C-alpha cells in the first residue's frame, strides 16, 4: 500500500505539471497534411508489425524525430523514451540503462544487460556503439527482458537501430550542420536501382568540432574528429528470395575527446563514501577545499579545467553483415552472418590537475563473429518462429594506471577473454478466437568463457613486484567458466476490438557471468569471476487507439525479481563485479496525439522503485541501496506545430524532460547523488512544398543546465571525484537537400 500510494502521488503530481503533453515520444512524425496517426511498423518480434499490435513496452523513434534531435549524439535518446538513461564515458564506452537495469563497469571486455542491435545483429562491444546512428529508418527501444527472440544479454531490454535500406527508385539527401564550438557535421546518402533486381545504398556522416571544456594549460577537451560510412547492396534471388550485404565503418581520428572530466575535491564518511568538500573545508590537511594532493580548481565552472596530459581517443571499427531471406511456401527462412572488428586506444588525465599524478590508458583489439538461422510461418490462428544462434568474441585488452609521480608505481594489467555461445530458441502465438491470444516462447543458451589475465607492478626504479597470472593453467577452476540457462516468455493478449490491446505476462531473461579486472595487487583470484544474472519480469499493459485514430495511449506496470544482479563497485581503484539480489517495481505511460492538423503532442511518464540488497560498502557495513541511474520519477513532453508559410511549411518544436534525483553507483555515495533536473531543446525548420529543401535552427540544452551524466568516486585514494557533465547549451543550424 505504501508503494501504491507513492505511485499514485507521483502520477498525480506529474499530470498536474505536464498537463496534456504527458505522453508517448513514439514514432516518426505524421505528415502535416494528415490529422490521423498512421501505422508505425516495427520489428520488435522479428517480424513486421504495427506498433500498437505489439504486446510489449516498445518505443519507436522514426526518421523525422531522429533528425530533429540530432543523430550524432546517442545520449539524446534518453530525452525521448520512458525509463531510459544513457551513460557515455566519452565516446569510448556507451552504456544504456532501462528501468534501472545496467552494468556500469568501464572495462572494455564487459558486455551490458541492455543489448544494442544494428538491423537484428548483436553488437557486443560497448566501444562500438557510438556513431552508428546515421541514415536510419528508425530506432526501437524494447523495455523488459527480450531473452526468447533476441536473447544475447537483453536482460533488461535492448536498443535496436534500423538502417535505411536500398530503394527501387533513385533518391538521396545531403545535410550540412554548423554549430557551437566550431562544429561542422555532414550526413548524406544516395540510393537506387543498379538493375531491375539489384539495389544499393551508400551513406556517410562526419562530425568535427572543438573541445567544449576549456583547458587553461593545454588543448581543450571534448573535441570530435569522427567519420563513418555504410554501403548496402541488395539483390532479388528467384521469385521469393533476397540477399543483402552491408559494410560499415566508424573512425574516431585520434581526437581530443578522452577523459572530459571535471574535478571535485572530496572527503569520505564513516562508510568510505565520498562527499563534496566545501570551499573552506580542509579535510585532508592540505588546504581548504583541496583534494588529498593539495589541488583545487580555480573556479567551480565544470567546463574549465587545467590538465597536463594530452588525452586522446582513437578508434577504428568495421563490420560486414550478410543476410539471406527466402520464402518456401508458407515457411520463411532467414540467415544472418556478421563479422565485427574493433581497434581502440584511449587515454585520460584521471587526476584532472596540472600535475602528473594519475594517467589512465586502455587498448582493445576485438573481433566478433555471429551466425543466426531462423524459420517462421503464420496461419489464421498460429504464428511461430524457431531458430539457432552462434557467437564468438575474442577481445585483447591492455590497461595502464600510471601513478608513478604520485604513488611511485605503474600498474599494467589485462589479457585475452574469449566468449563462445550457442543458443536455440522459439516462440509461438496462438489465437483460438480473434479476441484472445496466447504467447509462449523459450530459449536455451550455452556460454563458454575463458580469461587469460596478467598483472605487473613496476616501481619508478624499474623493479617489478610479483607478477599475478590468472589463466586456465594457474586457476583451472576459475579462469574457464561455463554458463547455461533458459529464457522464457508466457503471455496472454486480449483484443476486444481492433483499437484496444491488453497484455499480461511473465518474461524471464538471463545474462551469463564473466570476469572483472583489478588494477592493484594483492588480487584474490576468487574475486575475478562473477556469476550469471536472472531477471524475471511480471508485467501487464495496454495499448489504446482513441479519438478517431488521433490519439495513442499506452501504459504498463511491472515487477522485476532480479537474482544475482551484476553490481559494479570500485574500491581503491580496483574494479569489482559482485552478484546481488535486487527488485524493481514501476509503471510507465506514453501518449501520442494529433488533435488538429499540423499539431503533435507527445510525451511520457515513468515511476520506479528499486532496491539492491545487502551491498557491502567500502569500509564493511552492509546496507540496502537503490539501483544506479534509476530516478523514482521522470516525465517528458514534446509539442510540434507545422503550418503553411509561402512556398513551404514552417515547423516549431520544443521538448522537455524531468529526471528525479539519482545515483551513479551501487554504493549511493553522497558525491554520486545527482539532483533532479529539467532539460529542454527547441528547433525551428522551414521545408519547401516539394520536400527538396529544409533549413533548420536548433538549440540543445536550451537553459544551459549543468548536470552530470557520470561520476566516479575516488575519495579514499586521491580525495577527488571524476565527473562528466552533459554538453553545455549548443546552438546550430542545418541545410538539407533531398531528391
Characterization of the model:
By secondary structure, this protein is mainly beta. The strands form eight sheets. It has a 22-stranded antiparallel beta barrel.
Any descriptors?
739 residues, mainly beta, 22-stranded antiparallel β-barrel, 3 helices, disordered N terminus
Give the overall shape.
globular
Helix content: under 10%
Show unreliable segments.
1-33
| Oligomer type | single chain
| Average pLDDT for all residues | 90
**Could you tell me the strand content as a percent range?**
over 45%
Our measurement of the CA-to-CA distance between the termini, rounded to an integer number of angstroms, reads: 58 Å
Q: Give Rg in angstroms.
A: 25 Å
Give the biggest sheet.
Answer: 22 strands, antiparallel, barrel
The secondary-structure class comes to mainly beta
Give the beta-strand count: 43
In DSSP terms (H or I, runs of 4 or more residues), the helix count works out at 3
Secondary structure elements and their pairing?
Blueprint: H1 2-18, E1 41-42, E2 49-50, E3 58-62, H2 63-69, E4 84-88, E5 94-98, E6 114-118, E7 121-122, E8 136-143, E9 157-163, E10 171-179, E11 183-193, E12 198-209, E13 214-215, E14 224-237, E15 241-255, E16 262-268, E17 274-276, E18 304-305, E19 313-328, E20 331-349, E21 359-378, E22 382-403, E23 409-433, E24 436-459, E25 468-470, E26 480-497, E27 500-511, E28 514-515, E29 529-530, E30 533-546, E31 551-571, E32 574-593, E33 599-616, E34 622-625, E35 633-645, E36 648-659, E37 662-663, E38 673-674, E39 677-688, E40 693-700, E41 708-714, H3 715-718, E42 720-725, E43 730-738
Parallel strand pairs: 6-9, 13-18
Antiparallel strand pairs: 1-2, 3-8, 4-5, 6-7, 8-9, 10-11, 10-43, 11-12, 12-14, 14-15, 15-19, 16-17, 16-42, 19-20, 20-21, 21-22, 22-23, 23-24, 24-25, 24-26, 26-27, 27-30, 28-29, 30-31, 31-32, 32-33, 33-34, 33-35, 35-36, 36-39, 37-38, 39-40, 40-43, 41-42
Amino acid at each position: 500500500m505504501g508503494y501504491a500510494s507513492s505511485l499514485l502521488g507521483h502520477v498525480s503530481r506529474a499530470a498536474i505539471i505536464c498537463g496534456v503533453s504527458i505522453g508517448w515520444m513514439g514514432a516518426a512524425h505524421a505528415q502535416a497534411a494528415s490529422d490521423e496517426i498512421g501505422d508505425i511498423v516495427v520489428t520488435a518480434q522479428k517480424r513486421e508489425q504495427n506498433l500498437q499490435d505489439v504486446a510489449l513496452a516498445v518505443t519507436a523513434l522514426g526518421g523525422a524525430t531522429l533528425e530533429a534531435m540530432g543523430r550524432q549524439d546517442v545520449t539524446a535518446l534518453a530525452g525521448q523514451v520512458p525509463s531510459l538513461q544513457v551513460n557515455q564515458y566519452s565516446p569510448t564506452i556507451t552504456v544504456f540503462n532501462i528501468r534501472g537495469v545496467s552494468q556500469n563497469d568501464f572495462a572494455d571486455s564487459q558486455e551490458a544487460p541492455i543489448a544494442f542491435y544494428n538491423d537484428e545483429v548483436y553488437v557486443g562491444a560497448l566501444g562500438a556503439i557510438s556513431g552508428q546512428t546515421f541514415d536510419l529508418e528508425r530506432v526501437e527501444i524494447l523495455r523488459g527482458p527480450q531473452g526468447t527472440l533476441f536473447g544475447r544479454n537483453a536482460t533488461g531490454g535492448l536498443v535496436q537501430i534500423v538502417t535505411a535500406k536500398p530503394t527501387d527508385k533513385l533518391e538521396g539527401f545531403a545535410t550540412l550542420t554548423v554549430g557551437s564550438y566550431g562544429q561542422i557535421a555532414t550526413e548524406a546518402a544516395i540510393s537506387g536501382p543498379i538493375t531491375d533486381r539489384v539495389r544499393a545504398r551508400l551513406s556517410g556522416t562526419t562530425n568535427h568540432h572543438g573541445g567544449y571544456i576549456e583547458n587553461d594549460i593545454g588543448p581543450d577537451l571534448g573535441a570530435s574528429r569522427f567519420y563513418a560510412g555504410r554501403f548496402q547492396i541488395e539483390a532479388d534471388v528467384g521469385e521469393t528470395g533476397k540477399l543483402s550485404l552491408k559494410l560499415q565503418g566508424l573512425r574516431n581520428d585520434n581526437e581530443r575527446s578522452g577523459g572530459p572530466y571535471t574535478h571535485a575535491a572530496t572527503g569520505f564518511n564513516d562508510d568510505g563514501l565520498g562527499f563534496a568538500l566545501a570551499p573552506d573545508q580542509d579535510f585532508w590537511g592540505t588546504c581548504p577545499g583541496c583534494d588529498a594532493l593539495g589541488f583545487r580548481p580555480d573556479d567551480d565552472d565544470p567546463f574549465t579545467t587545467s590538465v597536463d596530459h594530452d588525452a586522446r581517443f582513437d578508434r577504428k571499427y568495421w563490420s560486414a553483415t550478410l543476410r539471406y531471406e527466402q520464402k518456401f511456401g508458407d515457411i520463411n527462412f532467414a540467415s544472418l552472418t556478421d563479422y565485427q572488428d574493433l581497434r581502440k586506444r584511449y587515454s585520460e588525465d584521471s587526476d584532472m590537475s596540472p600535475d602528473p599524478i594519475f594517467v589512465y590508458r586502455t587498448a582493445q583489439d576485438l573481433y566478433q563473429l555471429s551466425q543466426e538461422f531462423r524459420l517462421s510461418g503464420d496461419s489464421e490462428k498460429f504464428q511461430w518462429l524457431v531458430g539457432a544462434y552462434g557467437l564468438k568474441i575474442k577481445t585483447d585488452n591492455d590497461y595502464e594506471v600510471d601513478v608513478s609521480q604520485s604513488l611511485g608505481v605503474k600498474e599494467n594489467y589485462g589479457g585475452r577473454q574469449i566468449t563462445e555461445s550457442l543458443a536455440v530458441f522459439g516462440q509461438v502465438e496462438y489465437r483460438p478466437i480473434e479476441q484472445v491470444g496466447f504467447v509462449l516462447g523459450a530459449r536455451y543458451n550455452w556460454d563458454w568463457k575463458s580469461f587469460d589475465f596478467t598483472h605487473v607492478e613496476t616501481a619508478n626504479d624499474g623493479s617489478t613486484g610479483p607478477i599475478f597470472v590468472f589463466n586456465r593453467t594457474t586457476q583451472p577452476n576459475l579462469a574457464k567458466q561455463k554458463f547455461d540457462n533458459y529464457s522464457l516468455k508466457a503471455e496472454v493478449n486480449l483484443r476486444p476490438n481492433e483499437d484496444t490491446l491488453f497484455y499480461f505476462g511473465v518474461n524471464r531473461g538471463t545474462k551469463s557471468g564473466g570476469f572483472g579486472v583489478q588494477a592493484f595487487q594483492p588480487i584474490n583470484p576468487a574475486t575475478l569471476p562473477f556469476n550469471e544474472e536472472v531477471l524475471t519480469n511480471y508485467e501487464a499493459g495496454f495499448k489504446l487507439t482513441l479519438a478517431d485514430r488521433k490519439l495513442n495511449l499506452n501504459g504498463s506496470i511491472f515487477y522485476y525479481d532480479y537474482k544475482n544482479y551484476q553490481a559494479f563497485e570500485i574500491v581503491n581503484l580496483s574494479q569489482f563485479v559482485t552478484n546481488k539480489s535486487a527488485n524493481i517495481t514501476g509503471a510507465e505511460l506514453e501518449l501520442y496525439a494529433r488533435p488538429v492538423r499540423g499539431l503533435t503532442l507527445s510525451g511520457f511518464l515513468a515511476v520506479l522503485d528499486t532496491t539492491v540488497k545487502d551491498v557491502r560498502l567500502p569500509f564493511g557495513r552492509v546496507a540496502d541501496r537503490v539501483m544506479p541511474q534509476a530516478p523514482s520519477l521522470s516525465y517528458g513532453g514534446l509539442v510540434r506545430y507545422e503550418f503553411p508559410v509561402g512556398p513551404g511549411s514552417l515547423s516549431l518544436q520544443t521538448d522537455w524532460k524531468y529526471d528525479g534525483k539519482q545515483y551513479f553507483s551501487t554504493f549511493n555515495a553522497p558525491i554520486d547523488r545527482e539532483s533532479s533536473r529539467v532539460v529542454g531543446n527547441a528547433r525551428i525548420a522551414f521545408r519547401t512544398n516539394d520536400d527538396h529543401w529544409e533549413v533548420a535552427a536548433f538549440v540543445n540544452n536550451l537553459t544551459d543546465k549543468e548536470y552530470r551524466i557520470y561520476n566516479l568516486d575516488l575519495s579514499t585514494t586521491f580525495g577527488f571525484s571524476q565527473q562528466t557533465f552533459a554538453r553545455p547549451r549548443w546552438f546550430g543550424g542545418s541545410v538539407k537537400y533531398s531528391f
